[in-house]
Design a protein that fits this description.
By secondary structure, the protein is of the alpha/beta class. Helix content is 50%, strand content 12%.
Length: 304
């Protein structure tokens, strides 16, 4: 069921909270402005801080279809917009040949129709949707190259794409566009200028506690405090990949599955794979280092 757009910044926070997405006022403000002004929203930040999740939360809260374009190296315009179903076209050709007397011009016109068109995310986002304009998530844009950025710039400026055989498809209502980047490279300024921008940072202790409470409500406050404090302490270490909020949630759920009620060096060593994804980082933290960090965390959590 489609819902009206939120009428205030506070309404955005309440809307997202209803989908278990906890966000601060700064992020809620830029989301509100993006929805109000119909401007694409560009979110940058480390992996795992919740950039992708906010698109999912907005789509779910508004009752809109979520269309996701997962970017990767070598992604081109054709792969992002459409392709022809060559297998079905070949069957049609063989069938026409077997029947005999097929007119080539007629056959050609019949092969390049909607019947044989495979929609990719950008084309799908331009189509009318029963529940209103969809949420178009262009995820990890920094994985693509500059030619694709240039194409995207044009597509998002006019909210239309062109299929040479069929013509131009223009969105009757512009989709809600959210672009994300892990900043493995800089995205061109021309594209950023078309968007509202927000840097999604790691949350503070209190905010991350709220997030864990929303996503892993079964965890006791004591365990949640230790988990959040330990992860936040890990982020100050010289690691190849610092754990994001997604890892905090995963770790809390893993500990719950193991019926853990409090952290210990042994438990941390057994479950480091839930929060650290590189062996060098795991080796750096396990053993005596895990005990040292846990002791520091517990000292910091003790009431003054």
């Amino acid at each position: 069921m489609t819902k009206d757009l939120p009428a205030s910044i506070e309404a955005v926070q309440q809307m997202l909270a209803g989908e278990n997405y906890v966000c601060g006022r700064a992020l809620a403000t830029v989301v509100f402005l993006s929805l109000k002004l119909g401007r694409p929203l560009f979110l940058e930040g480390e992996a795992g801080v919740g950039k992708t999740e906010i698109a999912k939360a907005i789509a779910a809260a508004l009752g809109r279809r979520l269309i996701r374009l997962q970017c990767y190296e070598g992604l081109d315009a054709a792969s992002a917009v459409y392709e022809w179903n060559f297998a079905e076209q070949m069957i049609a050709i063989r069938t026409a040949e077997a029947a005999g007397g097929a007119d080539r011009d007629v056959l050609r016109s019949e092969l390049f129709t909607e019947e044989y068109l495979i929609e990719r995310p950008l084309l799908a986002a331009m189509r009318p949707q029963a529940g209103g304009a969809p949420v178009l998530l262009i995820d990890e844009l920094d994985r693509t190259d500059e030619p694709f950025e240039a194409f995207l710039l044009e597509a998002l400026s006019d909210f239309q794409v062109t299929i040479p055989e069929l013509g131009t498809v223009k969105a009757p209502e512009p989709p809600i566009v959210i672009l994300t980047s892990n900043r493995t490279r800089e995205v061109h300024d021309a594209l950023k200028r078309r968007c509202l921008y927000h840097w999604v940072d790691y949350p503070g202790f209190d905010r991350e506690m709220e997030i864990v409470a929303a996503r892993a409500p079964e965890a006791s406050e004591t365990l949640s405090r230790e988990v959040v404090a330990f992860v936040q302490r890990l982020r100050t270490e010289d690691l190849f990949k610092k754990p994001g909020v997604a890892e905090t949630i995963d770790w809390a759920k893993c500990l719950l599955a193991l019926d853990v009620i409090a952290l210990s060096p042994e438990v941390i060593g057994d479950t480091l794979g839930a929060i650290l994804k590189y062996q060098d980082d795991i080796q750096k933290i396990e053993g005596s280092e895990a005990k040292r960090l846990l002791d520091e965390v517990r000292a910091g959590l003790e009431p003054a």
